Amino acid sequence: MKTYQGSCHCGEIQFEIDSELKSALKCDCSLCRKKNALMVGVHESQFRLISGADSLATYQWNMKIAKHHFCKICGIYTFHRRRSKPDEYGVNFFCLDNADIEPDQLQTERVHGSKLSVAD
Ligand SMILES: [Zn+2]
């Protein structure tokens, strides 16, 4: 397991994850499609927010279980609390500053967020 540093565009938000960085999640829900999100799933014990807690904004929609965090200064989606696995974070692969693998080398796991239940 390696440690990868992540940040938003303006640098306010800094975090670290411990990961093998072998696979990534691609979700087809309406939010992930619009973000074009490619995410790395990590257990909360493998995630550390280093700085920027005050600049972190949270977007919730539909069932309001997942917490989608983004930087309120530069607007970049950094990571979110997953709905299907609440003890995990989904981390924006493109926010990792020292990723040593290209996105097309990652094994892509499809998540069918669009098939999850929706709020009335
Ligand atoms: Zn920022």
Automatic annotation (TrEMBL):
Domain CENP-V/GFA: 4-120
GO MF term list: carbon-sulfur lyase activity; metal ion binding
Keywords recorded for this protein, A-Z: Metal-binding, Zinc
Keyword Metal-binding: yes
Family recorded in the similarity comment: Belongs to the Gfa family.
Protein name: Centromere protein
Organism this protein belongs to: Maritalea myrionectae
Source taxonomy: Bacteria, Pseudomonadati, Pseudomonadota, Alphaproteobacteria, Hyphomicrobiales
